[in-house]
Amino acid sequence: MEISHRPFVLLLLSLCLFLQTSLSIDNFHQAFPIVEPDPNHTKLRLSREGLEAISRITTPIAAVAVIGPYRSGKSFLLNQLLSLSCYEGFGVGHMRDTKTKGIWVWGTPLELEIDGVKTSIIYLDTEGFESVGKSNVYDDRIFALATVMSSVLIYNLPETIREADISRLSFAVELAEEFYGRVKGQDVAFEPSKLLWLIQRDFLQGKSVKEMVDEALRHVPNEDGNKNIDQVNQIRDSLAIMGDNSTAFSLPQPHLMRTKLCDLKDEDLDSTYVERRDQLKKLVASILRPKIVQGKALNGKEFISFLEQILDALNKGEIPSTGSLVEVFNKDIVERCVKQYHERMVNLRLPMPEEHLQSAHETAHDEALKAFDAQHFGRQHAKKSVDQLDEQMQEVFKNFVLANEYQSSKLCEALYTKCEDDMDHLQSLRLPSMAKFNAGFMYCNQSFEHQCVGPSKQNYEQRLTKMMGKARSMFIKEYNNRLFNWLVAFALVMVIVGRFIIKFILLEMAAWILFIFLETYTRMFWTAESLYYNPVWHFIVGTWETVVYSPVLDLDRWAIPIVCIIALFVLYWRCYGKRKHGSSWLLPMYNSQKNGRNRERSE
């Protein structure tokens, strides 16, 4: 029987808990947590009670958030704006620890008509920063979340404006802008809230709070280029997004006995404070506008959906704290992007033309910047990190430029040396040939043109042109003289071959004619120089070039093998050819008289 009752008991307990929760939520005239810290105070989470209080709002929402140091009277200020006592409104703590945890919302919105539109005004109380037991990252998330959620952001500061206050606000604005961009897209402009600098101080003489704020946000002169002052001015630049959306207001202390403020009525408070408080209410009401996201006013459910997206991005995103520079946080990202750039560039095959290297650099540079844009934190502060990334990539690129110059010089030097050796070889041909020299000359030019690349090409091209010009002039100068001597020697050799070896009378006669023409006739009728311009000489040169060199046969290389083959053929013919085929020739040969003298006379 006990086992059968257990489901029924569990159902009753669940129903009791549900009824108890429902009864507590039905009373919305109280403060509810909307964003709570996790146990470690490092991340934030949404609270169901606060979400339910906001989700029931069907009209456009305008949120008023108060931020500032802990124990600075934020909760008391909100109660004063809501015309509530400490016992009715937000909880006020008198101890040294902070009372408000996370972000709280007043459950009953005020109704106000703004520009003819009925608008629900919600008030947000935030956990004060700089309290013990919390990380800077947690404070920054609270600050940034309030900046994104609010239509009017009241920056509650005691006495004066410190540099740390400006730095923290600057960082919160940039944090909000960054994660707003991550949620809505980097191309969607961040729509900042109205910023109200509220300075609570006892002295009202001297500078106005507006003058105090303007002076605090004014650029610090930095003629010497001091890096610390540059950083201070950079913080002020990041607040430029607030533009004309900021104003300032001063509020005196309500009473000297601050621990008893919750027990005091308006008539017990300082009259100047009461007057300024009422002016503050009117000022807040005058600058209030519905919360706009991408041009659309948000109702309760839409406000919660937007809040969930921003909170999820804040919790997931790795962010720095105001205690450390954004540039330091971005340092690892910069190093990764530089490494990505280097890996892309190191795959290039050097040397290469300068324009190709520049194009590869620009492509790798753009990819690295895109990677940085996708990972970096901040928009204003990150400009310095972008400059550092660009500077480091330029340094890496300079190394590749130097490596390209070295490899180009090495390659072009090798090609130049090879062409120089080839030209020297062509100068010492056994059988001088202008056609072969021109072919080698063209081959050197083409191989150098196609293989020599990079920045050294132009310099080596000039050297090559000069060297090959000299080689060509020298070859032409020696060509005619060497060819003349070769032809004279060739004619004498052919005379001997035709007379004593093959005994071919026509060959001998042709050789004698060539020899006489070269040695006698030309000397009698032409000078040595004029011979080279004579058409007969051109015909001889053309015939020589045709025989000595062609794409099919290079006689300079094969002259000795060919001569050896011909000599063997002639030797074979003289020794064995006559026995088999007799001594008859188709062409006239010298006749031997030896056999004729010894022949016996017949009777």
UniProtKB/TrEMBL annotation:
Keyword Acetylation: no
Name by which UniProt lists this protein: GB1/RHD3-type G domain-containing protein
Signal sequence residues: 1-24
Residue ranges of domain GB1/RHD3-type G in the record: 58-199
InterPro entries (UniProt xref): G_GB1_RHD3_dom, Guanylate-bd/ATL_C, Guanylate-bd_C_sf, Guanylate-bd_N, P-loop_NTPase
PROSITE patterns given in the database record: G_GB1_RHD3
Family: Belongs to the TRAFAC class dynamin-like GTPase superfamily. GB1/RHD3 GTPase family.
Matches recorded under Gene3D superfamilies: Guanylate-binding protein, C-terminal domain, P-loop containing nucleotide triphosphate hydrolases
Name of a matching Pfam family: GBP_C
GO molecular function annotations of the record: GTP binding; hydrolase activity
TM stretches of this protein: 483-502, 509-526, 558-576
The organism's taxonomic lineage, starting at the top: Eukaryota, Viridiplantae, Streptophyta, Embryophyta, Tracheophyta
Keywords: GTP-binding, Hydrolase, Membrane, Nucleotide-binding, Signal, Transmembrane, Transmembrane helix
Listed PANTHER family: GUANYLATE BINDING PROTEIN
